[in-house]
Amino acid sequence: MSEQVAPPPAADAAPAEPAVETPHPAEPAEPQAAGSQPAEAQPAEAQEPKKPKKALKIAGAVLVFAVVAGLKFGVASAIGNYFNKDETAAAKAGDCIAELPEVTGTEQEKVDGAKVVECTSTDAAYSVVGRVNDQSEAQANADTTCEQYFKEGEQGYIYSSIEPGKTGYVLCLTKKA
Fold first, then answer.
1. Residue 148 carries which DSSP code?
2. Residue 73: which residues within 8 A CB-CB, separation 6 or more?
3. pTM of model > 0.70
């Protein structure tokens, strides 16, 4: 069987009669109840698939743009940095750092959650006496990195933030009195 679909009527034109398929002689016609229309005789508007709303098209375009921009400009990286923010990244000489785990001897210990605090705060445990930028892991682990910032006889601590294979910064700290 073939079906015919009429285009929707123009706004100023009279509604067109729907196309009706006549049964073939080999197929017996089914009796119709009084006042009902055959299934094929539905208005043309009911036979057309509905078109997506304009708002959905706009939302889809915005979503595609956001994904492309995210891939191009590293939005995922920016979001990751926002949630895993390095709170000591802007630390400089004269700032204070909150308590860090106690390290004994020459051991190195990984620390999460180090943060800059007001030096008048009761949380202030260390004073930043120096900062050295663009250091590799090997340079940060050298005993000479902060040597120039520590006074003789003063116990110093080295805090570094360096991603593996990259460079980062080293903070030279002394215990706050």
1. G
2. none
3. no
